[in-house]
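pasting for ref
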Amino acid sequence: MRKVFILSDHTGLTADAMARALLAQFPGLSHEMVRHPFLDSPEKVEAVAREIERTPSALVFSSLVEPSARERIRQATGEGFFDFFADYTPRLERLLDSRARPTAGLLHGIANHGRYHQRIRALDYSMIHDDGAVTRNYEEADVILIGVSRSGKTPTCLYLALHHGLRAANYPLVEEDLETGGLPTPVAPHRDRLVGLTLDPEQLQRIRAQRRSAGRYSSLEQCRWEVARAEALFRRHRIPVVDTTAISIEEIAAHITSEILG
């Protein structure tokens, strides 16, 4: 099994995402991910460099900003070192005719105060307006997700808030809504902000059974009825829909931000 190191002087989310995307192209590769975020001192970098030197055939994905730290890790790793900043920054400097000003944490941290506070405000909004608990201030929402219970509304809203800074609310479609076929009163005035989530009834049944294995709620018959009625409601009111059956939260969010919200 090959060890894969993820190194960063901040959270490491960027390097981790890039590494996973690249390694996914090699489904037969057996590997173990070793993450070292917040390498913000020479002592920490040196300790990790020595760990890499003791690891045969290590792969290292780095978003380290400090040049001396990057060079030490490059020496320790050799050909298995993938330096996202060194690989792309010089080319960008040539194309933009401008010098980069490397600063740790600009993407995910508070170095960009406006972006940071936007995400925090969006997260607060999404948590308050989760699962129809609070329906006021829907006019402030960037998007309102609707769908049956356990269709992925809450985690998608939190992801949209945390990673995209979007004020995402969600509202559950209950049996009364599904029987009448009309939009629920709280969301009806905001149809232009609505996005429907649906999924395969068998998948829904498996998800619900993990939470509540007995009763009508998790029966396949009930799941089929709810999904069919929800999809009919979406068609009737021309609500854009994302099928969450076989895609991740990240992919759901990407569909919403790129294809629906534009």
